[in-house]
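Example 290, ligand zinc ion.
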Amino acid sequence: MWDSIVRATALNNTIRVSAVVTTKLTNEASLRHQTFPVATAALGRVMSAALLLTWGLKGEGAITVRVFGDGPLGGIIADANTEGEVRGYVQNPHVDLPLNNRGKLDVGGGVGGGNLYITKDIGLKEAYTGSIPLVSGEIGEDIASYLTRSEQIPSLVSLGVLVNPDFSVEASGGIIIQVLPDTPEEVLEKIEENTAKLKPISTLVKEGNGPKELIALYLQGIDINYLEEKPVNFRCKCSEDRIKNILVSLGKEELKDMIKKEGKGEITCHFCNEIYTLSKTELEDILENI
Ligand SMILES: [Zn+2]
């Protein structure tokens, strides 16, 4: 099954829902950053959330989700765009924690207490950033609290990642259901009833349910209007040109120092862990053109 995102509405647009399967891209992020299971689960959930939140953005819009807790994982950052591209990293990928009291990867314990920041870039000069204190650090609840408090839209958010004993990703995905004002009470009750009966979302993905099937399960008994499905991928915007621009911004003195001390430039992209190596001649070329 390919990773993809599906958006839909229901009941004359009073419910909007978006579901995503991110198993392959979370596995790629895990391999790139060599994450241990708790870090894999946290990063997978944050990347799924970033993709789901691109709902309604147009053109070159993008979402950045930043989770800054005081737990051992440190910061977790992911950004996603309307092309279905996402990238992300976790500050401390090698965190090992015992399972929590529900027998699950302890993402909340790894994240700790702190704040969640969501930046919406809709292509204007200034991006909008909203923040809330973390509720549990489990990410899903935190995103739901953000949407309910900042955007005043009651939201159900479920995010999950299953990691195999060999650290590969077995399943990863998520769903956001937003209920606009004026939705009849019995519809809300129906969604809550459906949700309570369902297995955890990572299990549903493991069992082979794609985003469309996930939406159908959560909104069982409600007419759904599917809007679009598109693939999602781990993709970083870094390139040799961008790295060269970063070197230019370091300034002459620092570049001279790098050439003198190291004889080459080695820059690692935080987001994808790609290492760019520039030779002494390349560094000297950049220096000449500053
Ligand atoms: Zn990169």
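Summary: The longest helix spans residues 37-52.
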